[in-house]
Amino acid sequence: MSSISPKTIIPKEFYLQDPVKLAPKLLGKIFVRKLGDIYLTGKIVEVEAYRGKDDEAAHTYNGKTKRNDVMFREGGFLYVYFTYGMHFCANIVCGKKNEGSAILIRAVEPIDGINIMEMNRFGKTELPYSRRKLLTNGPAKFCSAFAIEKKDNGLDLTKEPIFLLKGEKILKNEIVTTTRIGIKKSVDLLWRFYIKDNPYVSKK
DNA sequence: CCACGGATTGGCT
DNA sequence: GCCAATCCGTGGA
User: Fold this and answer.
1) Residue A62 to residue A5: CA distance in whole angstroms
2) Per the omega criterion (within 30 degrees of 0), is the bond before A199 cis?
3) Is A151 helix (H, G, I), strand (E, B) or coil?
4) Which residue in A97, A102, A178, A203 is deepest, having the highest Cβ count within 10 Å?
5) How far is the CA of A85 from the C1' of C10 (A)?
6) What is the pLDDT of residue A6?
7) Which residue in A182, A123, A131, A111 sits closest to A147, CA to CA?
8) pTM passes above 0.85
9) Would you call A30 helix, strand, or coil by DSSP?
10) A67: Cβ under 7 Å from strand C?
11) Residue A86 CB closer than 7 angstroms to strand C?
12) Nearest one of A202, A191, A196, A164 to A19, comparing CA atoms
């Protein structure tokens, strides 16, 4: 895989932005998770912004609780929550302390450690290529493939074992802006962003 | 204390 | 397309 040095890790300041501004900038970034001696990596291809204060769909809308505590930190932490009795979803906390904003990672394009991801998701590897995109084309699928769970909640994203790398520049005209998925409140906000025509996006 | 339902997924119809 | 699976945070009694 491409070289990883502390220098190439995306710094703290990057995360201290408004979620709706930051979300499209996360597209094309490389999500890295160190697992034992190996690195699982993937290009972020789909995200959703959840903003504190004015967003009824955000977990933080009704104030601080044990579950959403990490979301009230300043930007640069990983917020992981458990849902539907069986799935985890991962978010990148952003903005100022006590703002309560985060960006849900909905899909990545697998790069390194694909056989490990296959093991994590399906318990076996060397799956047909046609099943490749099923690895990470959804928020809970991504967490399963990258072995992200409750214990990863609150990790500092500026160091191992989980951080982001710069990746490739995504042009404005390659980004699709649309409504978020699976929520019942604030359904009209155009706060979902994905890379146009990327096969790993969860839903058009 | 208890009942509800969710930022989902996958299997079956 | 429909719906069960399965946990636990949250909110109302």
Assistant:
1) 40
2) no
3) helix
4) A102
5) 15
6) 67
7) A123
8) yes
9) strand
10) yes
11) yes
12) A191
Q: Contact at 8 Å (CB) between A110 and A42?
A: yes
Query: Which residue is it, tokens 């890379």?
Result: A195
Q: Domains in chain A, start-ordered, CATH in brackets?
A: 6-195 (3.10.300.10)
pLDDT (0 to 100) of residue A40: 97
Residue A125's pLDDT band (cuts 50, 70, 90):
confident
| Beta carbons within 8 Å of A45's beta carbon, 6+ residues apart | A27, A107, A108, A109, A194, A195, A198, A200, A201
Length of chain A, in residues: 204
HSE-up of residue A152 (Cα within 13 Å, Cβ side): 25
Question: Which residues, in sequence order, are bridge partners of residue A178?
Answer: A192
For the CA of A91 and the C1' of C2, the distance in angstroms is 29
Tokens representing A110 are 């697998």
DSSP percent split of chain A into helix, strand, coil, nearest 5: 25, 30, 45
Work out the percent of chain A whose per-residue pLDDT is above 70: 97
Task: Give, for A23, the enclosing helix (H) or strand (E).
Answer: helix A19-26
| pLDDT, position A58 | 95
